[in-house]
Every structure is written in C-alpha cells, then in structure tokens.
Amino acid sequence: MIWGRLSLAFSACLTLSIFNSSDWGIAAHQKDKIDQIFDGLTNSDAPGFALLVKKNGRVALERYYGVRDLRTKKPIDSQTNFRLASCTKQFTAMAVMLLVRNGKLRYEQRLTEIFPEFPAYGKRITIRNLLNHTSGLPDYEELMKQASAGKSPRWTETRQIRDVEVLKLLEEQSSGKFLPGTRWSYSNSGYVLLGLVAAKVSRKPFEDLLQE
User: Fold this and answer.
1) How many domains are there within the chain?
2) Do 61 and 111 fall within a single domain?
3) Cβ contacts of residue 99 below 8 Å, gap of 6+?
4) Where are the alpha helices (DSSP H) in the chain?
5) Are 48 and 42 spatial neighbours (Cβ–Cβ below 8 Å)?
6) Of 73, 82, 130, 163, which one has the greatest count of Cβ atoms within 10 A?
C-alpha cells in the first residue's frame, strides 16, 4: 500500500486556504487553478492523494490524483484508506486538554492514578510528560519486534496492534528509557496512552469523544 505523502497533504491545506472565503462557491477558474497546482505534484503512475472540500455538509470540490498501489496501479478514489499517522496527535492532545479544562483530568496527574495496574515506573510519569514527549516510555514498536522474535508475527498489515495491546506491552516492562522529565524523546507510546486515558476519564469510546 502506498500512503499519501504528508508533504502533499500539507500542500493541500495551504492551497485551500487561498480559496477560503465566506462563500464556498468555487468558480470554474478556481477549480482549474487548483488542478494546475496539484497536477504537477504527481502523475497517474505515482503515489498520490485525495482532495476534498466541503462546506455545510456539501461537497464543493472532489479530486483524486495518482495511484494507491504501485504494483497494481489502482488509482486513488473515494474509498482509498490513507494512513494518517502522527497527524492524529494534535487531535489527541486537544481532547486531553479539553478534559483538563473541564476539570476531569490534571496535567500533573500520574499515569498510575489512571491505570493503577501499571508498573512502578509509571508512578513518575505525568499527563504533561505524555503530552510533551518526556515520559521515557519504551517504544512500543520495538516491543512488538521483541514479542515476535523467533515466532510468527503477531501483528501484520491486516492485523494491526490495538491500543489495549500497546498498554499491555508497556505494562510488561519493568522500567522506562529514562527518568520522566529529564529528557525529550518522540513517543508514539505516549500518545497511544493519552488516547486510552481520554477514553477512560471521559467514559466514552475515544472516537465518540473526538466526534464531540
């Protein structure tokens, strides 16, 4: 699977801001201008992306560029799945910040206050540490490799790891990479836990919380 390039996604956001107005009636010459910009970023044989503009629930512009798979040359369409990856972190962080604002969570709250079964090394990890990548949590992708070493892969492209499984892997560790708050290290593990924290504190599935 060839995923949409993040740089192109950001280009889409920046370009669309040019056409932002109080009335989203996109004129023909504006659509042509958008096409000129994006046509130059990919071609029918290269990895591409999808572009969608909506206002008031109605589609104002819909475009698809390039292919989703270099082997089959299948073009990108409205059903193509794109891996959002770390673009989701900003939404997770905001969900947590809203819970703090609403008094349901504290930045200095310890991980073990929310997950009492978490090992002792989580006693010094705060919500703030998780948000700003200073928790020292082990990298769950490295833990996945260790868990599958010498065995058939437990997780594949069609059977991806779940958040609760990430939590279990982290709970099986006896220590983090460093003392929380003493260093900075980009942490996917931290943001998986933040999503679980938000769901537990709000008592709602995380996707429902995001929808609200």
Assistant:
1) 2
2) no
3) 105, 198, 201, 202
4) 6-18, 28-39, 89-101, 111-114, 127-131, 140-148, 163-171, 188-202, 206-211
5) yes
6) 130
Q: At what angle do helices 140-148 and 188-202 cross, to 10 degrees?
A: 100
Q: Is residue 35 domain-resident?
A: yes
Where residue 179 sits, what CATH number does that domain have? 3.40.710.10
What is the residue type of 15?
T
User: Do residues 82 and 50 lie in contact, with contact meaning Cβ atoms separated by under 8 Å?
Assistant: yes
From 62, 83, 104, the end of a domain falls on: 83
Q: Are 76 and 68 in contact (CB under 8 A)?
A: yes
At residue 25 the predicted structure's pLDDT band, cuts being 50, 70 and 90, is: low
* Mean pLDDT of the residues in the chain: 87
Residue whose entry in the numeric block shows the structure tokens 């504290």: 106
Which pair of structure tokens corresponds to residue 29? 């010459």
The pLDDT tens digits of the residues spanning 48-87 come to 889 888 888 888 889 999 999 999 999 999 999 888 889 9
Residue 184 structural domain: 86-211
Q: Which of 83, 104, 124 is the last residue of a domain?
A: 83
Give the angle 3-46-75 at the CA atoms, nearest 5°.
70
- Residue 75 β-bridge partners: 67
pTM of the prediction? 0.72
